[in-house]
Amino acid sequence: MDLKQLEYFVRVAELGSFTRAAHALGVAQPALSRQIRQLEVELRHNLLLRNGRGAVPTEAGQVLLAHGRGILHQVERAREELGRVRGALAGRVAIGLPPSLARLLAVPLTRAFRRALPEATLTIAEGLSAAMWDQVHQGRLDLALVYNPPVSADHQVEPLFDGTLALVQARPPGLADDPPLPIPLADVAALPLIIPSRPNALRMQVETALAALGHKPHVVLEIDGVAAILELVAEGLGCAILSSHAVASWTRPSALQTRPITQPELRPRVALVSSAHRPGTRTQQAAADVIRALCQERLGAINGASDRRPGAVPPAAHPPTAATPPDR
Asked: Which end of the chain, N or C, is less packed with Cβ atoms under 10 Å?
């Protein structure tokens, strides 16, 4: 076998689809299928069970997948060690950011990464936390910041900081610059909300907290996009419950009024997530250090709160339920 065949097989097995793997690898699907078939012939085993929904590893495929991940990781480590001989870390790191943090962190993260790892390549993907959670498991992302991560044996979860959810409204004309008055969560239930659709983790956190008070949200519109929600709120079509970071990084924050929510406060946890099955390369570990330092500088990271065991999440001030999938 050669490394290309092994990489192709691992990617198909992780993504569960020849089509998705071909897209991720940037190769034609027939060429991908041909390489994997050659690998199966050489090893004298069927490695993938092909069906109408995709492809899943056979028993032999599971064995090769476990070895293949380790082999590819060691190859990447070897490349990095050779880069170290030249005096620098090299390689590619793919990092995922949720939309509410991407505007705030993408530019300073790129600058800090280039300073710390000038010979490495950075890829930043913006997406919903639930999608990025899956992409970390599939190997498409090396690191990701996600909201309210659930417990998982497939992921390394390192809490970084607790955010704050606030009520966002259109700013009335002539409103004074005095600090906005807090609003009890129970009073939020009566307001028309523009909110992401389920299973968005922040929405689920809001609904759970309201249910504990005997209320449910008055949803007038479901939108899965932070920028679109803020535009609609600025036009006076409803209110929103979003993180303060999302509002601060928007293009027209002066068009909005942000009010703290109390009784109780809503504090979603943001964590740095990586795969529990693929130990990070030295370049990826250095990139994680860059993210930690940046979050500490910009957002106030939680020092000493980390537990990097697979799936471990220390208790937050207002933790989400374990069944809540991450999102946005």
From this structure: N
